Amino acid sequence: MLSPRYILLLLVTITLVGCSAASDKPSDMPTPSAANTTVATLRGYASSGVAHIVRDDMVLSGRVTSSDAEGNFYRSMVVQDATGGVEVLVDMYDLCAIYPEGTLLSLHLAGCAVAIDDGVLQVGSKAAEYDTRLLEPIASRQLIDCVVRRSDDVAVVEAQRMRIAEIDMSACGRKLRIDSLHLVAASSVDTLAGMTLSDARWSGTTLFCDERGDSIAVVTSPYARFAEERVPHGELSITGILSWAAYAGAGCYHLRMSYADNCTVY
User: Fold this and answer.
1) Given this model, what pLDDT does residue 135 score?
2) Measured between alpha carbons, how far is residue 134 from residues 42, 116, 181, 225 in Å?
3) What whole-number distance in Å separates Cα of residue 220 and Cα of residue 65?
4) Residue 202: Cβ within 10 Å count
5) What does the DSSP 8-state code read for residue 82?
6) CATH 2.40.50.140 residue ranges in the chain?
7) Rounded distance between C-alpha atoms, residue 263 and residue 231, angstroms
8) Neighbours of 33 (CB within 10 A)
9) Lowest mean pLDDT among 22-31, 49-58, 204-213
């Protein structure tokens, strides 16, 4: 029969071993590595229409400024530092559960491909030569974890307020807020069927003008949860990630919202 003293010693030993084993486990959320480059620098390294492989040990740090919770971002998230935003293409769903908006993380870019598409700097894997895309999402979770290092530091980034007239291409990829907007056109409206702007829904492209008459479009995936919601009327404020794309045969700045409530009525 074991003595009470021996039993106590055994319990203490088990407890100490258990604590040691727990402390040896790697953290699920390691501190992001220190950055040695910026979005602006990486943007200067990239090109529009061409994918470049990053050969150097470049590390970028920033916070997540998009969310795929409502389906308007698909297999991608946007990361922003003090100099701009970059869209990271990853072959994963429900990114908002792993990298919530505001999460501080670092991107280890060696071996990744970078390109500029619709004015937005993107990071991913280089697409095959026969592919019409420049980049494709980083495919495996192992590779994703090598590239993306997250932390438990979460602080949502406030959108930068800008007038449409103040925007230039360097702002593409940033989280912006544009105020004093009014709806002027929507691809969801079928005028031949007698529809008017009061019937406009988010799905597709909607066009807005500010008090100066400058215009900006909002693009919404038909798979977004709010795609079939009616576009509010009145004076609006819209927050989204900025890009540049064709509209009605000409170039136009676009915003992509993460949530339906990224549009508010004054």
Assistant:
1) 96
2) 16, 9, 33, 28
3) 17
4) 26
5) T
6) 160-265
7) 9
8) 14
9) 22-31
Q: Does the structure show a pLDDT above 90 at 14?
A: no
In 16-117, the DSSP E strands lie at 52-53, 59-64, 76-81, 84-89, 103-108, 113-117
Q: pTM to 2 decimals? A: 0.87
In this structure, what token pair is assigned to residue 246?
Answer: 């064709």
pLDDT per residue as tens digits for the range 139-163 = 988 999 999 999 999 999 999 999 9
Across residues 56-75, what is the average pLDDT?
Answer: 97
- Segment (H or E) for 254: strand 250-256
Which residue is it, tokens 């004076």? 235
Q: Report which residue type is found at 115.
A: A
The CATH homologous superfamily to which domain 160-265 belongs is Nucleic acid-binding proteins (2.40.50.140)
Which numeric CATH code is attached to 39-154? 2.40.50
